[in-house]
């Protein structure tokens, strides 16, 4: 009968002789502590902390060595406080890989007399949850709504300055080019309108004076012949 009870207790992930939180939460980079409380009859036994599954049972991830003595392995430490009937497990510098199921237990296997020595260790299961970070947790706890703003385009000062300079240069160069263009138009007007007019007037004058010159030549020739 006792053997049947022992097998049933082995399948139960908790024990009435050991109590503690079923779930603990911490942020990446932070530390968290788990306090496991036990009955006075287990004050002289070693306590341990391991990640599930903890098989074989005698292989502990981390185990106490005495009262008020901190045992540390990497980022995990465990300390037994017999006067408070509790032991504390601390995980430092949490990472996402630390999330999972752990066992908080008392090492009683094969230490009690009789058939009770084959009973499984009293333990309970702890679920460790590791969140992304404090900022995201703070935002979720406040319940703030996300406000979407329209995109704003930023123009670097250098581009703005060059744009203003280029616009100034363009306007200045246009104003400077307008003068030569007007002068060229006036010159072309003189060439195509005034010059032909002057040439026409000069041709008319020459045409008028040409008959007079011919008659004068004939008079001189007749006078020369008469002499």
TrEMBL record:
The keyword Membrane applies. GO terms for cellular component: plasma membrane. Residues 1-17 form the signal peptide. Keywords: Disulfide bond, Membrane, Signal, Transmembrane, Transmembrane helix. Residues 13-106 form the Ig-like domain. The chain crosses the membrane at residues 187-208. GO terms for molecular function: transmembrane signaling receptor activity. Its main location: membrane. This is CD300H molecule/pseudo. It comes from Bos indicus x Bos taurus.
